[in-house]
Design brief:
Length: about 325
């Protein structure tokens, strides 16, 4: 792929969406958002699901102010983490089957630096703890009580993440599921994964989740696993995943998407091929949802999923902040 430089970025093709993808809404776009700062491909923000719109807004503001891709990615997903109405991320996230909210998060910059926390309890912003792991330790991953102890040592305070609504739902689930089996179905998802490209052409990725609802205590999904839940490489692009984490891990999904882009595939095509790999490795694919989104270093974006109920939010200078419905392997009513 031809490198995008400051000299040639003016001639690049405007940000292109998959011809088949449907742009659905831009209701949450900020009409007063300042016009974009020019750069090689950026700024661009893309994130999973409807709650991505609000996350994109926050990330975009950072980029507009001249901030970098990493700060923008962290700032964006913190909005979702702090929203108790989002039942799949941060506070208000569904607990594990024992009624304990455990959070997974990872952050990565396009230069290759990364940090993550797994099964973290009591901390409102796991993404910021993941960033501290990246910046303040010699490690990439911290898990469980060790991650919590690290967060406290770094000055994070504790928060009760189990909201009344979430506790009520969990108790109902428990009463109705004496077998104590976590549900594996297409509804059990909605992680936020967010990718940024800044005006200097640097990429970043952030992914944060309360994980699969009513999972086994201690279960870790794809989201905090670098290469599975997210990946970023300034040479190529970035990708992130949503859906049934076990299926994403089996295919090393986000790394696969980036490597397919490295081979010359567009973001949408790379996501489609990665979904096909997931399907090949998961015979139960009809029962689960997996979706990928991708951002190439030239600013083009794309996504693809197994089932048609997935959408994602894209913010670009020319088109603002809007939802996109990607193609899916299983067609609507299929
Ligand atoms: C996981 N991938 O822990 C996450 C779940 C999720 O959208 O909500 N994804 O498996």
């Amino acid at each position: 792929m031809k490198p995008v430089t400051r000299r040639n970025f003016l001639h690049r093709v405007p940000v292109a969406l998959s011809a088949a993808a449907v742009v659905t809404a831009c209701a949450d776009s900020d009409p007063d958002a300042p016009s974009a700062v020019s750069g090689p491909g950026g700024p661009v923000v893309i994130s999973t699901w409807q709650h991505g719109l609000a996350a994109n807004e926050a990330a975009w503001k950072v980029l507009q102010a001249g901030g970098n891709a990493l700060d923008a990615a962290e700032t964006g997903v913190k909005i979702t983490e702090a929203d108790p109405e989002v039942s799949t991320v941060g506070i208000g996230g569904r607990p594990d089957r024992d009624g304990i909210v455990t959070l997974d998060a990872a952050i990565m910059d396009g230069a290759g630096d990364c940090g993550s926390v797994m099964a973290l309890q009591d901390i409102l912003h796991p993404i910021s703890v993941a960033r501290r792991v990246m910046e303040n330790t010699p490690h990439v991953m911290l898990a469980g009580e060790g991650a919590r102890q690290f967060a406290l040592a770094e000055g994070f305070t504790t928060t009760n993440l189990l909201t009344e609504e979430s506790e009520r739902e969990w108790k109902k689930w428990k009463a109705e599921n004496p077998g104590y089996r976590p549900p594996i179905n297409v509804e059990n998802h909605d992680t936020i994964g967010l990718l940024t490209l800044d005006q200097d052409g640097h990429l970043a990725a952030a992914c944060t989740t309360s994980g699969a609802a009513y999972k086994y205590h201690g279960r870790v999904g794809d989201s905090p696993i670098v290469g599975a839940g997210l990946y970023a490489d300034n040479e190529v692009g970035a990708a992130t995943a949503t859906g049934w984490g076990e299926a994403v891990v089996r295919a090393c999904g986000s790394f696969l998407v980036v490597e397919l882009m490295r081979q010359g595939h567009s973001p949408t095509e790379a996501c489609r091929l990665a979904v096909e790999r997931v399907i090949a490795k998961n015979p139960d694919y009809r029962e689960i949802q997996v979706g990928f989104i991708a951002l190439a270093k030239d600013g083009t974006t794309g996504g693809y999923c197994i089932h048609p109920d997935f959408d994602y939010a894209v913010y670009t200078a020319d088109a603002g902040n809007r939802m996109v419905v990607p193609d899916s392997k299983i067609p609507r009513n299929g």
